[in-house]
Amino acid sequence: MISANGLPISFVQSGGFKHFMSLVEPGYQIPVASTISSRLQLLYGELRAKIMNSLSSVSFVALTTDGWSSRAQESFISVTIHYINDNWELKNYTLCAEYIEERHSSENLAFMLEMVIAEWELDGKVHAVVHDNAANVVSSVLLVENVENSISCAAHIIQICVKTALKSVKLYSLILKKASTMVSHFHHSNVAALALRKKQQQLGLKELKLIQSCATRWNSSYLMCERLVVNRGAIIAVLADRDITSAALALKLEINEGEWTEMESMIKLLKPLQVATVVLCEENVTISILRPIIYGLINKHMLIKSEDNENVRNFKEDINQNLQKRFKMKRQEYDEVVIDQISCFLDPRYKYLETETDEVKENVRKSVQNVLQTTRPVESNEVVSEEISAMDFLLDAKSYGENESEFDMYLREPQLNHNVSNPLIWWKNNELKYPNLALLAKKYLCAPATSVTSERCFSTAGNIVTSKRSCLLPENVNLLTFLKRNQNAFNR
């Protein structure tokens, strides 16, 4: 219960728990905190062994990593692992929330990553590491041996692109500042908040609190504006009521008609970016979906139209330029083929590579062929019938698969619809037909597009290291975070 719910170990000594147990099971001897600590260590060992066993048969994994500082100003580094198992299920576990005492230099961070890799016996298995865009973190991954791919978190890149584009339009920056001030007023004034709820009831609106923006989460600006527009009528009514809001304060908080209109335009602009961020941050999304999503943003949602006003045009121009540059969307035929392109080809939903030019498409295919040639071949168990079909006989055509390589056969497969939620099911059904390509698919499709799983690890740690538990020992932070984050492993 303590590990599953993130409760303090001292919970067993609380008066409420003792009273509860006296009613449930009179005479039960409640274990002391030291006994609970020992049992948690045993639980940790059992769970660690189970995860280690599941990793023993895996050839390729991807890691995500992130840094965090607790309330006690102690620094931690989290590492999560992602892989595709023999049943073609995408799995992920939190390996650690490790205390790091030294300065966050690239060398120290690289040493921590190498230590985690060694402890979990992952040498030679780590195909990619996904991380944020901090210079020291980027450099640290490049220092780790035998890691082929260093991947910047797509959510962080979109965050940078959107913040830059919003700053480029002065009116949008002004509107966001005014919106934040208005939300702050309703959050800090009980009278205004109560009046807003009453107005929402009168207007038949849902009783929803206004959302404040956060500098490190651009989508919070979108959600803030969206919530304000939905409640515009109720907000204006409260600000116009002189029994609730003084004239001076109402003037200070005023958002004029033109600004409300621009806010609505801004919401329409930001919505595709918000949806893209949400999709990329989902639990079982791989990097193969990244280029199609960014391509769609640039060429569909951010395409400049004749009816766009100057602010919308400026935002679209800036965001397009940043997305293309930071995600390297305009790759040339002489550019090196990267993991997001290969994974896109190995995803049966995007194997036609519509996001690339014809020359780049050919380069990606050649790159996959080269990788296949350097990979130890796996014999197919697929039984191919030697009988010639009636249509093959009449058309004097070769039967499907005869004298044809795995690669050529895969090219002839129809592309799946992009709404197919799990491409791994296709690979599970076709693994025997394409054993060597299937091995590559496990290698390239296990990498996530974002480092969100590591961030979620620290959200869990933040709920454990509360203001009343700020002196929790670093090793206990790691222990409890590990147990909490991986509790579902017992049921898998």
Automatic annotation (TrEMBL):
Primary location group: nucleus
Q: Name one GO cellular component term.
A: nucleus
User: Which InterPro entries does the protein's record reference?
Assistant: HATC_C_dom, RNaseH-like_sf, ZnF_BED_domain_contain
**Per UniProt, which keywords does this protein have?**
Metal-binding, Nucleus, Zinc, Zinc-finger
The source's domain of life comes to Eukaryota
Where, per UniProt, does this protein localize? Nucleus
Zinc-finger as a keyword of this entry, yes or no, is yes
Domain HAT C-terminal dimerisation: from-to ranges = 406-486
Extract one GO molecular function annotation from the record: zinc ion binding
UniProt cross-references to PANTHER family, sorted A to Z: ZINC FINGER BED DOMAIN-CONTAINING PROTEIN 39, ZINC FINGER BED DOMAIN-CONTAINING PROTEIN 4
Q: What is this protein called?
A: HAT C-terminal dimerisation domain-containing protein
